[in-house]
Design goal:
There is one protein chain. By secondary structure, this protein is mainly alpha-helical. Strands 1-3-2 form a 3-stranded antiparallel sheet. It is 67% helix and 4% strand. A hairpin with a 5-residue loop joins strand 2 and strand 3. It has 2 domains: 63 residues, Winged helix-like DNA-binding domain superfamily/Winged helix DNA-binding domain (Arc Repressor Mutant, subunit A, Orthogonal Bundle), CATH 1.10.10.10; 139 residues, Up-down Bundle (Four Helix Bundle (Hemerythrin (Met), subunit A)). The chain contains 9 helices and 3 strands. The longest helix is centred in the middle third of the chain and has 25 residues.
């Protein structure tokens, strides 16, 4: 399904074949992923409507969907606030991410085309070149994992992985801010790509799961500082 895009002024592009409520919902999810909203930030219908230049009705619908998914919660009659995940939720989230990323890498080793492997290498190179920009690395890292999911040729896994990324966005600063993580992540990405290119599903899954375990270790380091 095509998605509405946000204009450079933050408003919603109309006529893209997507219901306005869905477009507002996706825009808010993308804002969470981009770090525009952090845990504890308040979301008010009127302010969101003004920013996206839409009426309050689709905003109310979108905020209701975010609340139903657990991304936001009531703020004592003063709108909604972005949820702050506790440590048990973080561990559960990364446990699922490890399973899903491992499965995606295994399936990609079975199905990825040569151009898709080349695209993974291009993203990995761009990541390495962006080591001084943690936000850009986080963006490219999402693109890397999304590319593996697409190469896995499983729409249900792809959809579930995208939802997991929305949850990851609630955790705040990227793990690329942890000392040494950019370089170690690059080595891990390269090894995963090599396993996919070699059609070695077992190794691709093992490497992908180890990659997420290392990401969790870095995440816990960040949480200890908060």
């Amino acid at each position: 399904m095509a998605r509405r895009a946000a204009k450079t002024d933050g408003s919603i592009v109309r006529g893209a074949g997507v219901a306005l409520g869905e477009a507002v919902f996706r825009s808010l999810c993308e804002a969470l992923q981009a770090g525009s909203y952090r845990a504890g930030d308040r979301l008010r219908e009127e302010e969101v409507a003004q920013r996206l230049k839409v009426s309050r009705t689709p905003v109310r619908e979108a905020l209701g969907r975010l609340a139903a998914r657990g991304f936001v919660e009531p703020a004592g009659g003063r709108g909604l606030i972005v949820r702050n995940l506790d440590i048990s939720e973080v561990l559960e989230l990364y446990a699922m991410r490890e399973i899903m990323e491992g499965a995606a890498a295994r399936l990609a080793a079975e199905h990825a085309s040569a151009p898709e492997v080349d695209a993974l290498r291009d993203i990995a190179q761009a990541l390495e070149a962006s080591e001084t920009d943690a936000a850009e690395m986080a963006r490219l890292n999402r693109a890397f994992h999304e590319a593996i999911c697409r190469a896995a040729r499983n729409r249900y896994l792809d959809n579930a992985s995208r939802e997991l990324q929305d949850w990851i966005a609630l955790l705040g600063p990227t793990t690329f801010t942890v000392t040494g993580r950019p370089s170690s992540s690059h080595r891990e990405h390269q090894a995963i790509i090599d396993a996919i290119a070699a059609r070695d599903g077992d190794r691709a899954e093992q490497l992908a799961r180890a990659h997420i375990r290392e990401a969790l270790r870095c995440r816990l380091k960040l949480l200890q500082k908060q």
